[in-house]
Amino acid sequence: MKPTPYFSLPTFLTTTFLFSMIVASQLLNGCASTPDTSSSTVPDAPSLSETLQIQCNQDDMSACFHLGIAHLEGREDENITPNIHTAIPYFDKACTGDLPQACLVLGSAYAHGQGLPKDELRAVQLFEKACNADVFTACGQLANAYYSGMAVEPDIPRAVQLFEKACLNHVPSACFQLGLAFLSGEGIAPDTRRAIQLFEQACQADIPEACFFLADMHAHGQLLPHDQARAAQLYEKSCAQNYAQACHHLGLAYFQGSGVVPDQPRAIQLIEQACNADLPGACNDLGLIFSIKDSAHHNDMRAFRLFEKTCQANFQPACLNLATAYYEGSGVDPDSVRATQLVDQACQADIPNACLILGVAYFQGEGVPADKKRAAQIFKSACKAGNAQACAFAKNPRHPDLLH
What we know:
Layout (H helix, E strand, L loop, with lengths): L18 H10 L19 H10 L3 H13 L10 H13 L3 H13 L7 H13 L3 H13 L7 H13 L3 H13 L7 H13 L3 H13 L7 H12 L4 H13 L7 H13 L3 H11 L9 H13 L3 H13 L7 H13 L5 H11 L7 H13 L3 H8 L4 H4 L1
């Protein structure tokens, strides 16, 4: 018995705040405006960065903050290349001078070890300082710290309070996290209707994880009406914001014609995009597409390489598919020993059917010395785990499927 193709199940990734997004959000949410430099149009007048430097030297903290932004993002018109290391001292000065937006950016740098040694405790302190000054994105960051236990004791109720504070003050990523809390009932009474409302609010504000959650609910008919077309629309929106899982699921929708007109080239493009973003399930599924015999995209060598790469990343479903390639000699020389080693590895990881296949290998002596006693033990164990075929083999060692 050879392994059957194993398609990955969706997994949900924890939301993170990218450093560049934090900076951009603060420019949009309450930071003092860039100083007036209209005089820079006069010949020989100081450039914008020179004006900011003069004002920063005079302890204008807003100028220091904007100068930090200039160095962080770069300014081609003034030959300033992006450099977080030159930006950090300006954010540090502005934060010390009680500009809370700068404390948020500095905290994020400490949290991620960007431009500074990683120091999660210092990051939490800075997030708290900024949150107390009503920089609400910082409240969301502080909530994440309390939720995950980053440098503080985990405190789910406190995290939920902070997510709610940030959400009420127009931080959409916090609305998404608050929705997760309402969905799970962690730190707050469960309320699926409120959770969905918050996901929709966050999705409308272009939080890709929220759109993905809603899409998956529609795709599986869980908590929302089963609607493949609506699911595809939401996957599309999330994928457009480079959320790899959404691109993966949208690719599968195009491959299967679920809610969209089937389009295999588009499907492959999307799944490959997700694979290139290091999403192992996407790489596994891409390998399966290339392994389909008599298809326009059949390419055993490419399928083998994808399974091998993804198995090496410890994604066990790909290891089971890699075993198929070794058993069948698809894209690689046949090697039943290596194949059975991979099946054993997948069985230990509880991948469906892997233990059944391992039992058959021991029964028939494929890749291992024949050992019917060991095969019987494996079948009994797989049967207890709910594998009906393993139960049949355990009950009847002379089952026709075992003897050919």
